[in-house]
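In response to a reviewer's request, we include the raw inputs and outputs for one of the modeled complexes. The two entities were modeled together in a single run.
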Amino acid sequence: MSLLSVEKLSVNFPLRRGAFTAVDSVSFDLAAGETLGIVGESGSGKSVCVSSLMGLVPSPPANISGRAVFKGASLLDAPGETLRRIRGKEISMIFQDPMTSLNPYHRVVDQIAEPLRIHEGLTRKQARLRAVEAMASVGIPDAESRSRAWPHEFSGGMRQRVMIAMAMITRPALLIADEPTTALDVTVQRQILDLIKTLQREHGTAVLFISHDLAVVADVCEHLAVMRRGVMVEQGRSAEILRAPAHPYTRGLLSCHPALHEPGEPLRVMPELLDPPASEAP
Amino acid sequence: MIRFLFHRLVFQALPTLFVLAALSFLLVRLAPGSPFASERELPPQTLEALNRAYGLDQPMPVQFFRYIGGVLRGDFGPSLRMPGRTVSELILAKLPVSLELGFWSLLYAIFVGLTLGILAAVKPNGFGDYSAMTLALLGICIPAMVMGPVLALVFGLWLDWLPVMGWHTPADRILPVITLGSTYASYIARLARGGMLEELTRDYIRTARSKGLTEAGILVKNALRGGVQPVVSFLGPAAAGLLTGAFVVEQIFFIPGLGETIVNAALNRDQFVILGCVLLFGAFMVFFNTLVDVGLALLNPKIRMTAGRKAKHEG
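The model returned the following structure tokens for the whole complex.
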């Protein structure tokens, strides 16, 4: 049985004239402990797709339709209370920009501990102890003394580790990682990816990993889905898609990757990036 | 923190007050008219004697530094209009009333302003938001000299619920406090709404939501601290303004506060009283703005660090 099953998920935003469809009838399944990567260009609807599962897309104005079932509970029409019990406990999320995702007014230890206080009713002291352990487990050196620090005293990579510690502290069944390495430099990217892979293996957490970078996704995820303009054009096992992409768009994406390129050849660019479709033009 | 306060006092507060005293001194002396002028012209000998008695025959710099010397010893000089009374006496007699009026008005403004502003920000562009902001706009637009009499007319004379003059019973406080505090409440409401709205769009609010916090928890634990910062900045000048006498409101409701003293002193060219009041206002301003800076530093760990570091570099 799958952990998360999404069927015909559509999200559209009403505009002054007509509507903009950010996610168009997307379906996928994710089994417990499985990893699924969603790739696509910027603006292809990846983030909106996963954010809407978490109830983070405000509706109204957005129209969200379709079905999303997590552990037998329907996510899209769940009452606030049910959704809150799932958010941060069963499904947790890390975001693209670790510089702004942490609250500058609270010490990191309290932010990491917060899900425990919300969902497991721990006292401040117990939660802090667990938070320090979590900091150590995501590779923050001197976790004990660093725990009293403020977010602005951490580098981007360390902040993303803090976010991961916070997301993993309740041992969620599903981790949604929305471009978690995009804002980081390449060496730190590597470390964060390895950390996510390690934690995923240790805890058997299912991961829904969003990225615009095929190489990153293929590295972390067994399964791959390619999104383009709100539509999921191809999905399957990563290895197979990389070896024999079925959809022309996937082939295009692959051929744009610098590592797969002949030296000396000009780097290819997706045509859409040069000539955006009329509906998205500002 | 002690270092920061010390620097504030020595390098900012004292020079500010000194410049303030010098400028006001100059302006008062440059203004035409004399404290001794009256309908009946004084004989020149009398005028000369008066000037000599108060040291006004000395060159201006001498007068000024004599005055500053006196202030440093706690002597703010005599009143030129009311013989035998000192400026300190005059101010201290009226200040408590103004302080009390200002204090209640400030509390009222903060409470009403924050409540309206936060409620407006929770559901922006909804009915509550529009109502609160319309109310705030009215509060800003209607001056005390209109709101005071209207309130007095409605609640005092027509409905006969509240007294409209004097400063004796607690009920006497209600109408003046509303009149004086409403403008400030309106500014606070608008600032709080703006601050909260900006804060609620932050990425860490999304993080908080993704952790499963309730909307109330998001508001109180994550948004409030950043959202009220514009309000806190505004409270410095607001507090100084409210506490040092509100001439119009005091006149409307017959409250024996400092406002009248200031205005009369200015009309009468009673220079030491004017200077005393100006210095008092300046001192309040400096004090409350320092308090605000301390408050902001307590609210925001990032400011706390840089403030501490700056003080260290300067020292």
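As requested, we also summarize the result in words. Chain B has 14 helices and no strands. The interface with chain A takes residues 202-204, 206-215, 217, 222, 225-226, 299-302, 305 of chain B (CB under 8 Å).
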